[in-house]
Design a protein that fits this description.
Distance between the termini: 55 Å
Bound molecules: zinc ion
Largest sheet: 9 strands, mixed
Radius of gyration: 21 Å
Strand content: 15-25%
Oligomer: single chain
Length: about 450
C-alpha cells in the first residue's frame, strides 16, 4: 500500500497525553491513519514481493501540529461579510439586519458560501469543521453544504439547524424564515439517515442544532434532544451569548440558560454549546459534571461586544472547550490561528498575562475541539489516530526572530498552513488548495453575494 512520509519535521507537537514535542521527527501515514512516528523512516516499502513507492513530504524547518478544529460556524454567512447595517450592531439588531438578506439565498448560495468558508479555514490549517445551518430559504438543504465540504476535502460535522418561532409568535426571525416543527424533525431524520457516519474516521457526521432558545419552542428543543439520542448524534446550539440572551431567558423561561438546557435534556457528552460568554459558576459546574462542551468564539464575542467567555474558569473546572470562528458575518474572518491568538489575548485581558499560554491555546484549537465534537480518533499525532496533520513553515517575516516556533505559531502571524492533510490526503499544498480553482470560486461567490443586495 502506498504511504506518505512527512520527513524531518523540526518539531512535531503531538498533543498526546504527555503533550510531547518531538524534534527532527518523521511521520508515516497509510490508509488515512498515522502508522509510524520516528526518525529516519525509510521510504519505498516492500509489501509482499513488491516495492511500493512512498510519497515523501519534506518538513525540514517546519512545525507539525494536529489539524486545527473549528467547532462553530455558519458558512452561509460568508456571503454577508461587513454588511454596513450590521457592522456596529449588537446581536439582536445584527440578526434583524441580516435576516432579510439571508432570506434571498438559495441552494447555490449555500454550496458556494460553504466552499469559500471551508477553503478559508483549510488555508489556516483547519482539518475538521462543524457548521450550523439554521435557515433553509428557497429550497436550500443541508445537503448543499455537505457537497461543498466534499469538494474541499475537510472533515465535516454538519448540523441540521432550525428556527420555528417567527416574529408574530414573539421570536426574533421574520415569519417567512421559520419552519414548521414537524417538517424540521422529518428533515432531521432524513439528513441523519442519508449522511451521518458513526464510524471511526468518518468524514461526515450530522448533528441536530435548533438555532437558539429564542428562535425555537421548548418542544422542539426537547424533541430534538430525544431524536438525537435515538439516532446517536450530537446536539448543538447557541447558549448564554450575551446579556440580552440572559435577560430573554429570565423573562421568557423564568430561569438562566443553563437551567433551561438542563431541563430540556441539553447537557451531556453529546452536547456542545456555542459562546457561553455569560455562564456563571453553577453553570460551569453543570457543564463540567455532565461533560457538556463549549465552542469558544472569541473574535465573534469581541465583534458583537458580547463579552469575555470565562474560558480560564471553564478549563480549570474541567469543561471541554474548543474554538469556533463563528459565522463570517460576525467575525468577519475565518482564520483558525487568528482565532486561537484572540482566545489567548482575551483571557489575558481578563485574568493577567499568565492566564493562558500559547501551548494551551494550541491544545484548545486542536485536541480540545476534537473532544468537543466527540472525535477521539482525531486531534493528536499518535499512532492509530486519523492523519489530520498541519505543516507550518515559519520561515517568513511574521515569525522572523522567534525563539520558540511552537509558541510563535500562536503569538506571531497570523500564519497560513504550508501543507494540510485530512484523512491522509493533502488538501493544501504549498499554501494552495488542491483540486480547486480559488480565483473562480471567489468570483462565483462574489457574484452571488452581491446579487443578494435588493
Ligand atoms: Zn453562531
Amino acid at each position: 500500500m502506498p504511504t506518505t512520509i512527512i520527513k524531518d519535521a523540526s518539531i512535531v507537537v503531538t498533543m498526546d497525553n504527555a503533550r510531547r514535542e518531538l524534534k527532527k521527527t518523521d511521520i508515516r501515514i497509510a490508509d488515512g491513519v498515522i502508522v509510524e512516528i520516528g526518525t529516519n523512516l525509510i521510504g519505498d516499502q516492500l509489501v509482499g514481493d513488491q516495492l511500493v513507492g512512498d510519497t515523501l513530504v519534506d518538513a525540514t524547518g517546519c512545525v507539525v501540529t494536529p489539524g486545527l478544529v473549528n467547532t462553530h460556524h455558519h458558512l452561509f454567512q460568508t456571503m454577508t461579510r461587513a454588511v454596513p447595517g450590521g457592522q456596529d450592531a449588537l446581536l439582536f439588531g445584527w440578526l434583524q439586519t441580516l435576516y432579510p438578506i439571508w432570506s434571498r439565498m438559495g441552494p447555490e448560495h449555500m454550496f458556494v458560501s460553504a466552499q469559500v468558508g471551508l477553503a478559508e479555514l483549510a488555508l489556516s490549517g483547519c482539518s475538521m469543521s462543524s457548521d450550523h445551518l439554521y435557515l433553509y430559504p428557497n429550497g436550500s438543504k443541508l445537503d448543499d453544504t455537505i457537497e461543498a465540504a466534499k469538494s474541499i476535502g475537510l472533515r465535516f460535522h454538519a448540523t441540521r439547524g432550525s428556527m420555528s418561532i417567527g416574529e408574530s409568535d414573539g421570536g426574533l426571525p421574520p415569519d417567512h424564515l421559520v419552519e414548521n416543527e414537524a417538517q424540521i424533525l422529518e428533515d432531521s431524520i432524513r439528513v441523519i439517515d442519508t449522511f451521518h457516519d458513526p464510524n471511526e474516521g468518518a468524514m461526515v457526521r450530522v448533528g441536530l442544532a435548533p438555532c437558539s432558545p429564542f428562535s425555537v419552542s421548548r418542544d422542539l428543543m426537547r424533541n430534538s434532544a430525544l431524536l438525537a439520542r435515538d439516532k446517536g448524534v450530537m446536539l448543538h446550539t447557541h447558549l448564554a451569548e450575551n446579556d440580552e440572551d440572559i435577560a430573554y431567558s429570565l423573562e421568557k423561561f423564568g430561569c438562566r440558560p443553563g437551567q433551561y438546557a438542563q431541563d430540556l435534556g441539553w447537557v451531556g457528552e453529546d452536547v456542545w454549546h456555542a459562546h457561553c460568554v455569560k455562564l456563571d459558576t453553577t453553570e460551569i459546574d453543570l457543564f463540567s459534571r455532565t461533560g457538556t462542551g463549549v465552542a469558544h468564539c472569541p473574535c465573534s464575542n469581541c465583534r458583537l461586544g458580547s463579552g469575555i467567555a470565562p474560558v480560564r474558569q471553564m478549563r480549570d473546572a474541567g469543561v471541554k472547550v474548543g474554538l469556533g470562528v463563528d459565522g463570517s458575518a460576525s467575525n468577519d474572518a475565518g482564520h483558525m490561528l487568528s482565532e486561537a491568538r484572540q482566545a489567548l489575548l482575551l483571557q489575558r485581558v481578563q485574568n493577567g498575562a499568565d492566564a493562558m499560554s500559547a501551548r494551551e491555546t494550541l491544545e484548545i484549537a486542536t485536541l480540545g475541539g476534537a473532544k468537543v465534537l466527540g472525535r477521539h480518533d482525531c486531534g493528536s499525532i499518535e499512532i492509530g489516530k486519523r492523519a489530520d496533520i498541519a505543516i507550518w513553515d515559519l520561515n517568513n517575516i511574521a515569525a522572523a526572530g522567534n525563539w520558540d516556533p511552537v509558541a510563535a505559531l500562536v503569538l506571531t502571524g497570523p500564519h497560513n498552513v504550508r501543507v494540510l492533510f485530512v484523512e491522509g490526503r493533502a488538501i493544501v499544498q504549498d499554501g494552495h488548495l488542491v483540486g480547486n480553482d480559488m480565483g473562480q470560486m471567489i468570483e462565483r461567490h462574489n457574484r452571488l453575494a452581491h446579487g443578494l443586495a435588493e
